[in-house]
Amino acid sequence: MDHNTENSGEVVFIDLNDDAGEDVNNIIDIDCIMGQQGSGDATQNVQKHWINILEKGIDHLTDAEITGLRFSSIDDGGQFYNTYAKLVGFSIRKDEIKRNKNNIVTSRRWVCAKEGFQTTRKEDNLNCKREARPITRTGCKAAFRIRFDRRSNEWVVGEFKKEHNHDLVAQLETQFLRSHRHIKDSDKAYIIALHNNVGFIPKDLYNHVVADRNSNISDGDAECALAYLQAKADMDSSFFYRYTVDKESRLANLFWTDSQSRLDYECFGDVLAFDTTYKTNVYKKPLVILVGVNHHRQTTVFGCAVLVDETIETYIWVLQNLLVAMNNKTPISVVTDGDKAMSAAIKSVFPESRHRLCVWHLDRNAFANLPNTEAYESFITCMVRYVTPDEFEDMWQKMVNKHNLHNHEWLHEMYAKKKKWAEAYMRGHFFSGCRSTQRCEAMNAFFNRYVNRKTRLYQLFQQVDRALTRIRHNEMGADFSSNYTEPILFSKLVKIEKHAANILTREMFSRVQEEIMNEQTFIVLDSTESEGYRTYTLTQYECPDSKWEVVYYPKDQHMKCSCLLFESYGYPCAHLFAIMKAEHLKQIPPSCIMKRWLKTAKSDLSDKHESQISPDVISMARFSALSFSCSQMCFFGSRTKEGFEELKVEIARLKCRMEELYNSNGNANGEGIHSRVGIKRNVRDPAIVKTKGDHGSTSNSSAKVRRCSNCRDVGHTRRTLTTHMNSWNNLHQMHQLTHLIYKQIMLETFNHDGGRFQHS
Q1: Which SS3 state, helix, strand or coil, does residue 730 take?
Q2: By CB neighbour count within 10 A (0-12 exposed, 13-18 middle, 19+ buried), where does 626 fall?
């Protein structure tokens, strides 16, 4: 299979001199790729002739040009093939090596990392406690061999096979391929130099950061924050933000989301969870993070908001702006804690959505409000047990009678909300496995690594972008694992299990595989034929009293089970797999596949939000490309005295030349946020607010008083206590001396007045 036709993303070489700005993900520089190979061989000091061939582009590279290459060493040949592999989108590994009778290497062969097949034993995998390693071999025949030519004293190409039998990796995901994850020697030397001698002390770095922050917010924190968001909107045409101001023109509420979050909501916006976190900024404004679940069951962020308060009107404003940003797509289900303002806002903005209360908060409230442990355990049983609504009512009545809770106020309040938390009423409603706001709590904890109560708004937006980059990088890693490795198959339903492995992400396949394995315990008791469909009755081995019904329509292979697992979680249950086996199906029917769990869940998007790359990003790409080349040059130049002296002169000459070009283009004054946006909104910094989650003072000067750990007094510490006591003794002696002098003055005054007062 030709790699030119199978590669999902065409390799494009972009001229970094183009100021128009292309997609930065396609910016590929040969020097960058070479630098990442990590070879420290001396041949890197010479310009390699094969670089010019690769710079033509993979689409224009012929087999004759590759087979005609010559290399100065084995490392040179290996570096070429690894660079070629990264441009195409696969990983390599060493294979065969041949030596002569003098033990001298005469031939070296490299192969695609997916060459051969992995030996597996199902029995060992079934009994293994750890998860089996995925299959990475597909029997790919791609290979590259060089051999030593004695006549020319060079290494020539002896074999080149370019066809692959697997999908090739997109350029952004080559960072996960093993042969491309090396740190080159020049970078290692640079890291060591930074640790040993950076030319300044930590205080200088701190002063620079503070000065840079102060210069950014010279027009005010709110003005700078809004300018930052406007700059992102200029770069990303699908970036969305809205804000409000109060009567004093202070920033009140602010909501924002970027193009990637909007795409994620389009794919996974059927379930929404949100919660409020505190202590994320200097103004004590609560931060709301709206999250969902992606196709890897990872948490994905749909948007963020900073609020002036936590009233119903404020939450309505947030949800309405979320709807505007997401093209009025409402979620199927919403999960929050028991906050009454949130519940009222959800009922107002999402009247058709199913609202669920967090089971973790209910658990804590039940433990705090119920009179004893037995009553608490009975309540939890009613909450989580998979029963019918009638069975739930019976269980509830028994609990109330047993523990004499007829007049319990909190219990009556919870019973009125039973359709928001009882599993009996949640069956059949899709929540993608979300039963609590745990994802929100975890996301809050994750964001707290980047922000704290001293963070300014301008810094808050920057840190949120950093956190989002980390989250999306993790999703990219999960995409790579799902698309380019295969799981181990265990069951006897090989075709059905293979089909599930091919279409589902790795995380969802593990859950489906568990249901396939459990299918063996179910027995078909009876089947009845009706007009257009069949009804199967199943029972479970060693549980003859438990029964389930599955309705199957042969015409379109539609299936539905009475357990409602598919409707609740989005993947087929073991009962459905038992009927697939009974009907001799070879694949999972489309009615039992939910698109949001597929590997291709984000591939066919109805609305492509295209973004325009900013000049800053293009400049950063240029800087990265030059840094790779310069760091490598500095590494070799530092190894010899002659190289060091020569390189120092050349760097000084080039530095002066580049500075002249920079100044001649009128860029000496910088391109800050304000100069790019050029909008003055006259929005003042927010006022410090009082929130539910922060019980401290709203004053900025509420610093904690430091006390001595010995005497609990202020003004000194345990370390300076002796000095303090000496000072106190001196002060006491001076006070006594002052008192004696005062008495002497009074006595002299008494004698002068003729003894009208008697002095004792």
Answers
A1: helix
A2: middle
- Model-level pTM greater than 0.90? no
For residue 748, the model assigns a pLDDT of: 47
Q: Residue 98 in contact with residue 82, Cβ under 8 Å?
A: no
Q: What is each CA distance from 462 to 171, 242, 538, 677, in whole angstroms?
A: 26, 17, 56, 17
With the C-alpha atoms ordered 58, 61, 66, 72, is the resulting torsion angle positive or negative?
negative
* Per-residue DSSP letter, 58: G
Strand arrangement of the beta sheet that strand 287-293 belongs to: 240-245, 251-257, 299-306, 287-293, 271-277, 333-336, 354-357
Q: Are 140 and 165 in contact (CB under 8 A)?
A: yes
Q: Looking up tokens 């002739």, which residue turns up?
A: 49
Cα dihedral sign, 122-126-132-134: positive
**What is the C-alpha to C-alpha distance for residues 108 and 624, in angstroms, rounded to an integer?**
33
pLDDT at 21 > cutoff 60: no
What H or E segment, with its residue span, contains residue 206? helix 202-216
CB atoms within 10 A of CB 599: 18
Q: Which residues contact 361 (CB under 8 A, 6 or more apart)?
A: 337, 338, 436, 437
What is the tens place of the pLDDT at every residue in 396-436? 999 999 999 999 999 999 999 999 999 999 999 999 988 88
**Beta carbons of 168 and 89 less than 8 angstroms apart:** yes
Calculate the alpha carbon distances from 523 to 58, 203, 328 in Å: 56, 73, 46
What count of other Cβ atoms lies within 10 Å of the Cβ of residue 520?
15
For residue 536, the surrounding DSSP H or E stretch is strand 533-540
Written as six digits, the tokens of 259 are: 């193009």
User: Average pLDDT in the 543-558 region?
Assistant: 92
pLDDT of residue 689: 65
Tokens linked to 529 = 């034929």
Q: Which two tokens stand for residue 396?
A: 């509830």
